[in-house]
């Protein structure tokens, strides 16, 4: 008997450690996907217990299958793992479904690793892999390690306010060695490549539209519609970012605050809905034409904002994932009915060219959005064939709607620009008429002064002839007042009448000449009325009248430079602008012509209002360093 006891003792001390414990996992390169149930044990507690106390527990139960355990419980799993090779081997534990998992790995009494992973574990606390629920560790050569996994849900700051039970804890853990993990990882990335490509397309498209929306808003900061459109695009773009996979750079960044990332997408959607309602109020000009409906949508938008913020804060404080799931499954139908009612009202009652864009955009949102909701909620993440599995998603629905709204905004901008141009053109016409109304009385005043002068010096015959010419000139001025442009021939007739009137006053000391290029068609060329007269008047009053010369002369040249350019030149042999300015300073009571200033303003308005352009240059003429007159050059681009 003593010999048999000795054999048992030797087997326990030598053979058993070599072969491994009865519940020890052994993974080789040829091993398939290796779930840990069957060789593991499970312990369920009502509260969190420290690892040292757990190691002393005796009431472990076999883990024979995948369990769904109430989310309020605290779950422990333990098993043994043997490295059968004489060199260290890396292993991977995978479970992507739980909120928080703590991993304790012991070699005898020595703790080799403490790892932390899960959906609610921050990026910087996770193990070296970038995947949620995947941990890596190394087992020394020919060693057997004991592994404890603690699984629990985040309780929240105020768990007593929780309405629904927390989501169940899953025991779907698998163990892989390096080779099997790389095979699984390649398959994982290949499976998700199509989704990543489509998701990148969503994010890239929305990102570009966001930049464009910001630029439009920046140039039109005073208009609310562009601000609301920018916020709507921002909400959609933010939603796609929150849905990024954990292994992407964006997913890693957002994973620093995992509970925010987990609950933010739904909140962002509702905030986007709120901004969308404010956007369509401005798009359809509902405040002007349907104030009651506008007030209703405005209140509804505020309700969406309040709902989203209250629910978000509630979920953050309580981690009531059951409430989130219930809201996801039950608020889409009322929202669909509400949106359908809004669309019907808009289609029937609102008479706007933007309605068709609204209906098209919302139809796309409803169709794709509801299919995404069915796939993700009611159908419980059912896998659809090929690209359809990723195509029917809410980001795509929103992207399509935003593109349609971009077209609507472009149409609205075009319509507003057209109205603005029409208003500007009418304003310019009114301004030009106002300037002409200032100019004509000014010219009439000068002419009447000339007649008064002739009467005072008893030149009655001259005054009578003057009045005849003046009446003809007055009739032409009155006829031209309502016109923006007149024929050159009409301008020249009026200009000759004016010069004849002024020549009467000056006598033989004043002469003038008007020379028109033979290539100029005076009956066809259109110019602003009284374009040249103010410069001629200015030459006479300020250049020739103060001059002591006996041969006072003013010459007007009109010639065609090329097919698109005509030159008007007014040249006098007066005292020049410098001496005229000195005389004006000495006697402020002398004649102060505003004709040139008014004409400059009229030309500025003309250039803004018409395709034809007018430019003016004025130069002093010198001979042997002495001023001998002034030349005005008017270039008229056809």
From TrEMBL:
<dbReference type="InterPro" id="IPR050640">
    <property type="entry name" value="Bact_2-comp_sensor_kinase"/>
</dbReference>
<feature type="domain" description="7TM-DISM receptor extracellular">
    <location>
        <begin position="46"/>
        <end position="162"/>
    </location>
</feature>
<dbReference type="InterPro" id="IPR036890">
    <property type="entry name" value="HATPase_C_sf"/>
</dbReference>
<dbReference type="Pfam" id="PF07695">
    <property type="entry name" value="7TMR-DISM_7TM"/>
</dbReference>
<dbReference type="Pfam" id="PF07696">
    <property type="entry name" value="7TMR-DISMED2"/>
</dbReference>
<feature type="transmembrane region" description="Helical">
    <location>
        <begin position="387"/>
        <end position="410"/>
    </location>
</feature>
<feature type="signal peptide">
    <location>
        <begin position="1"/>
        <end position="20"/>
    </location>
</feature>
<dbReference type="InterPro" id="IPR010559">
    <property type="entry name" value="Sig_transdc_His_kin_internal"/>
</dbReference>
<feature type="transmembrane region" description="Helical">
    <location>
        <begin position="304"/>
        <end position="327"/>
    </location>
</feature>
<feature type="transmembrane region" description="Helical">
    <location>
        <begin position="201"/>
        <end position="218"/>
    </location>
</feature>
<keyword id="KW-0812">Transmembrane</keyword>
<keyword id="KW-0418">Kinase</keyword>
<dbReference type="Pfam" id="PF06580">
    <property type="entry name" value="His_kinase"/>
</dbReference>
<dbReference type="GO" id="GO:0004673">
    <property type="term" value="F:protein histidine kinase activity"/>
</dbReference>
<feature type="transmembrane region" description="Helical">
    <location>
        <begin position="333"/>
        <end position="350"/>
    </location>
</feature>
<feature type="transmembrane region" description="Helical">
    <location>
        <begin position="357"/>
        <end position="375"/>
    </location>
</feature>
<keyword id="KW-0808">Transferase</keyword>
<dbReference type="InterPro" id="IPR011622">
    <property type="entry name" value="7TMR_DISM_rcpt_extracell_dom2"/>
</dbReference>
<feature type="domain" description="Signal transduction histidine kinase internal region">
    <location>
        <begin position="431"/>
        <end position="509"/>
    </location>
</feature>
<dbReference type="InterPro" id="IPR011623">
    <property type="entry name" value="7TMR_DISM_rcpt_extracell_dom1"/>
</dbReference>
<keyword id="KW-1133">Transmembrane helix</keyword>
<keyword id="KW-0472">Membrane</keyword>
<feature type="transmembrane region" description="Helical">
    <location>
        <begin position="225"/>
        <end position="242"/>
    </location>
</feature>
<keyword id="KW-0732">Signal</keyword>
<feature type="domain" description="7TM-DISM receptor extracellular">
    <location>
        <begin position="198"/>
        <end position="411"/>
    </location>
</feature>
<feature type="transmembrane region" description="Helical">
    <location>
        <begin position="262"/>
        <end position="284"/>
    </location>
</feature>
<protein>
    <submittedName>
        <fullName>Sensor histidine kinase</fullName>
        <ecNumber>2.7.13.3</ecNumber>
    </submittedName>
</protein>
